[in-house]
# Entry
Amino acid sequence: MQIYLPIAEVSVNAFLLLGLGGMVGVLSGMFGVGGGFLMTPLLFFIGIPPAVAVATEANQIVASSFSGVLAHLRRRTVDLKMGGVLLVGGLAGSAAGVRIFALLREMGQVELLVTLSYVLFLGIIGGLMFFESLRAIRRSSKPGARPAPRRHHSWVHGLPLKMRFRQSQLYISAIPVLLIGAMVGVLAAIMGVGGGFIMVPAMIYILGMPTKVVVGTSLFQIIFVTGFTTLMHATQNYTVDAVLALLLLLGGVIGAQIGARIGVRLKAEQLRILLALMVLGVCGKLAFDLVVQPTELYSLGPGGGH
# Structure
């Protein structure tokens, strides 16, 4: 069933969009990521303009993340205090990111920036997560092996403005928490992602949070940052397609509940290596599209001639 998207100005299959939304919702519930790192490139691939894909996907992330958070709140695996501090940094970063996005859109450089950002961040994060998870699985498979001890003291613990996060069993500085939140806010605005693929590893390896609390806390922060990002894009850049967002949202809410149930049945190392493989797969596809010669060397944009 073909449906016309008024802001994107293209016709797409409605069932395809529902399916994509459901798939990303499953990822959200399983891994604590908004799923935008996968959905936004997929929207590029089916012909949605990058500016519309980025702004609209942020809207869909809100719904799938909210659905996932409800499941984690029932299991008491959300650190609300940690999420609140991350949120303060995230809102500031999001406001700055939307402004940068608007400037680049005026210059006509949005598509290149978004694609390069994806290749860079997905390649680095996916590679680090994959090799670390592989080492963890090898350690756990050895007879009599014990999990590697978590480092309780690092450079993070030497910073000022310390706060106690009881749910995460941490007493650390608020500075790295704010910085992680701000970075995720910028990514949400420019790349149309929740930022979970950056935030989840950062919360585990930099802050030292327990994996079981990370997923729910990440989703909690993602809800508010991506909601704010959507509002900013809609009022300043006019690039949010409500019809596209609704179809993605319906699939995403259902998928997130399924993903949350699947996630509790897998070990932390298995979750991380699956996420890493998906991140690297999307990165490879985007990098290939950057270097391969397009089938059409010229295309007419909104300001093009006839």
Q: What stands out?
A: Residues 110-141 form the longest helix (32 residues). Residues 2-140+152-291 form one domain. The radius of gyration is 19 Å.
